[in-house]
Specification:
The chain has about 60 residues and is mainly alpha-helical. The protein has 1 helix and no strands.
């Protein structure tokens, strides 16, 4: 009985490690998404600026 308990404990530990890895991956994904969003925002801003400049020139 004791041996079985020890094995279960070990398994639980292993699972915890895996979870940590998953969390890290999630964090990385989130960071990537944030970066992408930032890039998109920057692009939009640039486009807006260009449009504004064009409008000013026309006037």
């Amino acid at each position: 009985m004791k041996k079985k308990l020890i094995k279960k404990k070990k398994m639980k530990k292993k699972k915890k490690k895996k979870k940590k890895k998953k969390k890290m991956m999630m964090m990385m994904m989130m960071m990537m998404m944030m970066m992408m969003m930032m890039m998109m925002m920057m692009m939009m801003m640039m486009m807006m600026m260009m449009m504004m400049m064009m409008m000013m020139k026309k006037r």
